[in-house]
Specification:
With 136 residues, the chain is an alpha+beta fold. The chain is 23% helix and 40% strand.
Length: 136
């Protein structure tokens, strides 16, 4: 189901709760909403559609990657950049890392530990920030 985008900074500034297997359907809502906003959005966190759960989705070019309870366990190569957000207007400066390692569960509730770099790593960092109540 396509859900409306939350723009309330007070809501977005709250930390999200851990997702459980009961939240698997939330992944489809994120997928649908990302697809509906693909012309202006490359990633989403569940709180952007009004659900305070640690779930994100990232457009990886040939599809999308859904992550439940993502945790960034390693960061390398800091750099300064500017980012926009579908929930906010304008762009803001932030520090990101070129290479990251992320632990998460997939839609089948299988545990993964993967490395990402470049633009995909940047998007994941932005969305994980959302789950931590960090709004840039």
């Amino acid at each position: 189901m396509i859900r409306p985008i939350v723009k309330d900074v007070l809501f977005l500034g709250q930390k999200s709760e851990a997702a459980t297997k009961k939240d698997l359907d939330l992944g489809q809502d994120l997928q649908d909403t990302l697809q509906a906003n693909r012309d202006r959005c490359v990633g989403m966190a569940a709180n952007m559609i009004g659900v305070k759960k640690r779930v994100i989705i990232v457009d990886i070019g040939f599809g999308s990657l859904l992550m439940f309870n993502p945790v960034i366990s390693k960061k390398e190569g800091p750099y300064e950049t500017e980012e926009g957000c579908l929930s906010l207007s304008g762009v803001r400066k932030t520090t990101r890392y070129q290479n990251i390692e992320v632990q998460y569960f997939d839609k089948n509730w299988q545990r993964h530990k993967d490395r990402f770099s470049g633009k995909i790593a940047q998007i994941i960092q932005h969305e994980v920030d959302h789950t931590n109540g960090i709004v840039i």
